[in-house]
């Protein structure tokens, strides 16, 4: 796969986003939050991500080292995306692939990541 533009959002539709992202490089992390939420994540430079609606409905959750800014909808509670930085300082958006409109999850093959050990 290559980078493509996708649209998506939370369950109730309050939070919406547009992102240019490569879905051939997804991960399934086993850290405490990703495991419980069943997140499949894909990453894009922050400039390739735009929140198109619901900015005032974002709520943020930080845990552990407070490096990842988990964004969730105040109405339905779904985490559609998060923000953070790569080790080199590049600002990134982590998109919950399950929140991309019309995604066929059978075509997504996430790489396991042992986030629980960090």
Write the layout of secondary structure elements.
Layout: E1 4-9, E2 16-21, E3 27-29, H1 32-37, E4 41-45, E5 49-53, E6 58-61, E7 69-73, E8 79-85, E9 91-96, E10 111-113
Parallel strand pairs: 3-10
Antiparallel strand pairs: 1-2, 2-5, 4-9, 6-7, 7-8, 8-9
Q: What would you note in describing this structure?
A:
The chain has 118 residues and is mainly beta. The chain has one domain: Metal Binding Protein, Guanine Nucleotide Exchange Factor, Chain A, CATH 2.170.150. The protein has one helix spanning 32-37; strands spanning 4-9, 16-21, 27-29, 41-45, 49-53, 58-61, 69-73, 79-85, 91-96, 111-113. The strands form 3 sheets. It has a 5-stranded antiparallel beta sheet, with no helix packed on it. Strand 8 (79-85) and strand 9 (91-96) form a beta hairpin. Belongs to the Gfa family. Residues 6-118 form the CENP-V/GFA domain. Pfam families: GFA. One of its GO terms (molecular function) is carbon-sulfur lyase activity.
Task: Please summarize what this structure is.
This protein is mainly β and 118 residues long. It is built from one helix and ten strands, in the order E-E-E-H-E-E-E-E-E-E-E. The chain has one domain (4-113): Metal Binding Protein, Guanine Nucleotide Exchange Factor, Chain A, CATH 2.170.150.
By secondary-structure content and strand pairing, the structural class works out as mainly beta
> Radius of gyration from the CA trace?
13 Å
Number of helices: 1
CATH class: Mainly Beta
Mean pLDDT: 93
Distance between the termini: 29 Å
As laid out across the biggest beta sheet, the strand order is 4-9-8-7-6
Residue share in helices? under 10%
Query: Could you say which overall geometry the principal axes of the C-alpha atoms support?
Result: globular
CATH domain topology: Metal Binding Protein, Guanine Nucleotide Exchange Factor, Chain A
Q: Any idea what the CATH architecture is?
A: Beta Complex
Order of helices and strands: EEEHEEEEEEE
Which regions contain 5 or more consecutive residues with pLDDT less than 50? none
Beta percentage is: 35-45%
Q: Give the number of DSSP strands.
A: 10
For the biggest sheet, the summary is: 5 strands, antiparallel
The oligomeric state of the chains shown is: single chain
Number of domains: 1
InterPro entries: CENP-V-like, CENP-V/GFA, Mss4-like_sf
Protein name: Aldehyde-activating protein
Keywords: Metal-binding, Zinc
GO molecular function, one term: metal ion binding
